[in-house]
Specification:
The structure is a single chain. This protein is an alpha+beta fold. The protein folds into two domains: 76 residues, Ubiquitin-like (UB roll) (Roll), CATH 3.10.20; 79 residues, [2Fe-2S]-binding domain (DNA polymerase, domain 1). The chain contains five helices and five strands. Strands 2-1-5-3-4 form a five-stranded mixed sheet, covered by helices on one side. The longest helix has 25 residues. It starts with a strand and ends with a helix. The mean pLDDT is 94.
């Protein structure tokens, strides 16, 4: 028995019929065809499926699609604006905070949620936030460096937006 859900994904309204047991990660990938959200473990251990749900980082393999009814979701595809990388995405590229890239979307989504909540996060805060995001390719040093640089870019972007609004 399919259930009707309506939500906002990357700023666009979405309505669909889903089976009650459909995981949000599968809805995002299979129904919406947003494949930047990766399926890693399906047990909320690796963090590859991390998205923002109502501004909070959540592991989409640990949420049913029906639980997202009425929510605002942002996936990795929704971070860039007008073809320009989000400051956190740019920092991961510049600081070599990625290798194979499989974990990167989840890392970036976790990092942006942290910095949105705590703009002056320390390296220790970053490590604590990313504790549930596994990377099998890097030593995390460049990932932490990338998050701190991305945080600076996010603060700069926020200040610029405030100046433009004044």
């Amino acid at each position: 028995m399919a259930i009707s859900i309506s939500l906002t994904v990357n700023g666009a309204p979405v309505s669909a019929e889903v089976e009650p047991h459909t995981l949000l990660v599968h809805f995002i990938r299979d129904t919406l065809r947003l494949t930047g959200t990766h399926v890693g473990c399906d047990t909320a251990q690796c963090g590859a499926c991390t998205i923002h749900m109502d501004g909070r980082a959540v592991k989409a393999c640990n949420v049913l699609a029906v639980q997202a009814d009425g929510a605002r979701l942002t996936t990795i595809e929704g971070l860039a604006e007008d073809g320009a990388l989000h400051p956190m995405q740019a920092a991961f590229r510049e600081c070599h905070g990625l290798q194979c890239g499989f974990c990167t979307p989840g890392m970036v989504m976790s990092a942006t949620a942290l910095i949105a909540a705590k703009p002056d996060a320390s390296a220790e805060d970053v490590r604590r936030q990313l504790d549930g995001n596994f990377c099998r390719c890097t030593g995390y040093h460049n990932i932490v460096k990338a998050v701190l640089e991305g945080a600076a870019g996010m603060r700069q972007q926020a200040a610029s937006t405030l100046r433009e609004a004044s």
